Each structure stands twice: as C-alpha cells, then as structure tokens.
Amino acid sequence: MAQAEVEDLAPLKVQSAATPIAPAGKCAQVAEIISRAQAPIIMAGNGVVREGASEALIEFAETLNVPVATTFMAKGAIPFSHPLCLGAIGLQARDYIAFGFDRADLIICVGVDMVEYHPKLWNPTRDKMIIHIDESPAEVDAHYVLEAGVVGLISDSLGRIAARAERRTSSGGHKLHEVITREIGEFSDDTAFPVKPQKILWDLRQVLGTEDIVLSDVGAHKMWIARMYQAEAPNTCIISNGFAAMGIALPGAIAAKLAIPERKVVAVCGDAGFLMNSQEIETALRLKLDIVVLIFNDAAYGLIEWHQLRQFQRSTEIAFANPDFVMFAESFGAKGYRVERTEDLLPTLEAALGDGTVSIIDCPVDYAENMKLTEKLGNLVSPI
Q: pTM for this one?
C-alpha cells in the first residue's frame, strides 16, 4: 500500500453532519410527564460526557430539583460534592442509590447506553416510566419501554425541557447524598495493613486536584473506584465498562497525558491487569511522560474471587505470583515504590506525583473488604 501510486488530487472535503435539534412537541411532552411525576430521578450516561453536556445536566437538575445518579462511565458529569449527586450506579448489588430508584416513578435517562447498566437491573418489574434523552434513539428492550423519547442535541433538549417543566419543592436525593458522603469518609483515618481499598481511594483523592485524571483498569478495584472515588468533573475518572477488558489503565493513562499534559494522571490497576500491558512502561518513558501507576496488589484475580465467593462460598485457581514491582519498574528506568505501612501511602503518592517521570506504586490491598461490602449491601435499610 505504501508503494502504490495515486493520482495527484486535492484532499476530500470534510463532511460534518450536524446533530439535529429535538422537535418542540417532544420537549413539551417530556416536560409535562416530568411535571406530573411524584418522584423522578435522573440517570446520566456516558453520552452526557461524550457530548459535552455536563453543564446543561447540572442546570437541568438544579432547575427541576431532581437528583442525579451516573453510570460508571459518566462519573463527574455532575460533581460528587453537588447535593443532588447520588454517585455512580452499576454495582451488581443493592447500594444506597437503589433505594432512590425503588422510590422513583420516573427515570429520566440522559445519554444512557444500556450496555453500561442493563435496565433489567434497575427496572426488574418493568413498572417505571422512562424518558430517553439522547442524540440517538433508544434501543428496544422489554425493560426499557419509553413513555417518551427526545432525540437531538442533549444540551439543547435539557434546556428546553427544563424551561417548561415544573420545579419540585423537595427531593429525597439530598438525604441519600448525605449518607453516601458520610460513608466515603469512614476509613479516612484507618491504619490497618494491608491497606483497605476505601483508604487507598480516600488518600488518592486527597493528593489529586479536581481536574486531574484517574484511569481505572478492570478488576475488583474498579468496583471500589466506581462506588467511592469522588469525581468532580467530567473525564476525570475514566472507567472501562460494558464490554470491559483488563489492561486498559496504563495505555489509557498514556493517552490522557498526551491529550492533556498539564494535568496529573494516575492509572489504577490490579496486579493482573497491570501485568497484561506492563510493557507500555517503555512507551511512556520513551515519550517522556509524567504518570503514576498505582497497583492494588493482592496476588490474585480479585474480582473473579469476589464473584466465586458470592456464588459458591469458596474460590479456586485465582492466585498467582507477582514479580518484585519495584525492581520491575526500575528495570525499565522508571521509579518504583512499595507501600509497607498504611501511613506511608499518602506521602508515597505525593512523592510519585512529583517525580516528573513514570512512577509505579506497589500497594498491598486487603480484599477481605469485598465480601464485607457484599454482606453490608445485603442488609441495607433505606434511609429515605
């Protein structure tokens, strides 16, 4: 192909199809449905982030006083600190957010692709009214039957619907937000070792700015990041979801640093996921990138073990031996750190973020917390 001769022609003109504006009648119909609802809730999907509609989403939620849950891939579409934010939905278990969906009579799906979180998990009895707002039509599914759909520019649609719908005087989301926020801080002073995943994510949040970027690999740590990491802006907590594959975090961090070099970038991996693409350390060093790789080290396939314990009450063939990650990093010419006390994690993160090169942190993790979380979620009582 490289040797083939071509005619000396001008480049083709770029064709850019404009996304349509939603019909006024559809926006009016949806506004009326929202005004009649007793307990609406918004589910924001990755389409909101992809289309740059986060500000419009926040204004929509504030104007109508409706709480917002995000899918894993839409974390940060509304700041976690916002009182209407309920955090991320998508765990294969009943979390606090599930109580909000149980109570809701209307689910306003904005930029949602069902591959992120299948509607049979949040609408099992098919009794919820559903509104679909996106730049593409909804997929057909027995658990995703629309009351109405609005297809067009998301930001424009949200603005026009909010201008016509009635504002709610109260929202159960505020109480849920308080409960979720309080839980996230419970392990802020924990010193047990190996380090609990809640503590790792608490310390990581302390050393990063609101615009800095966390890339999550796929594994048990992904569930904890989705549940516990407080994303304050879109595209600052990037999680591979849907048809997710292990090994994405390190190459994803390289891409993020190349795209936005002024931000700090941290790849969060399990030990297995890290080893699947660890050769990209060389790429990052060759490109002279400044990134940190934080490894949750349990010497096992932690998420598979979690599923095995939940279903069979035992695990099998999930353990493996790791290399010395510090020596492994240094063999490439990167910096290597090993956390040997929980108290050392925060200063180690700070040091690595200031190295100006590729830094690898080996952090032993206590995944006994996985089944403790499963048991806790199984016994939750609704706070609203």
A: 0.91
List pLDDT tens digits, range 95-150. Answer: 888 888 988 999 999 999 988 889 999 999 999 999 999 999 999 899 999 999 99
- Helices 220-228, 197-207: axis angle to 10 degrees equals 60
Give the integer Cα–Cα distance in Å for 169 and 280.
52
Cβ-Cβ contacts under 8 Å for 210 (sequence gap 6 or more): 79, 232, 233, 236
Q: How far apart are CA 84 and CA 67, in angstroms?
A: 5
Beta bridge partners of 108: 42, 131
> What six digits make up the tokens of 2?
């490289």
pLDDT of residue 302: 92
State which H helix or E strand residue 41 sits in. Answer: strand 40-44
Torsion of CA 120, 126, 128, 129, to 10 degrees: 110
b/e per residue, 219-245, with b = 16+ CB within 10 A?
bbbbbbbbbbbbbbbbbbbbbbbeeee
Question: DSSP states of 60-110 as a string?
Answer: HHHHHT--EEE-GGGTTSS-TTSTTEEEE---SS--HHHHHHHH-SEEEEE
- Helices 197-207/345-353 angle, 10° precision: 40
Rounded to the nearest 5 degrees, what angle is found at the Cα of 164, between the Cα atoms of 159 and 165?
100
Cα 141 to Cα 120: distance, rounded to the nearest angstrom:
9
Q: If you write DSSP's letter for every residue of 189-237 in order, what string do you get?
A: T---SSBPHHHHHHHHHHHS-TT-EEEE-SSHHHHHHHHH----STTSE
Calculate Rg over the CA atoms of the chain: 22
**What's the residue count for the chain?**
384
Q: Which two tokens stand for residue 136?
A: 């593409």
- pLDDT tens digits, one per residue of 347-371: 999 999 999 999 999 999 999 999 9
Of 264, 325, 268, 270, the C-alpha closest to 291 is 264
Reduced to 3 states (helix: H, G, I; strand: E, B; else coil), residue 296 is strand
CA–CA separation, 116 and 243 (whole Å): 8
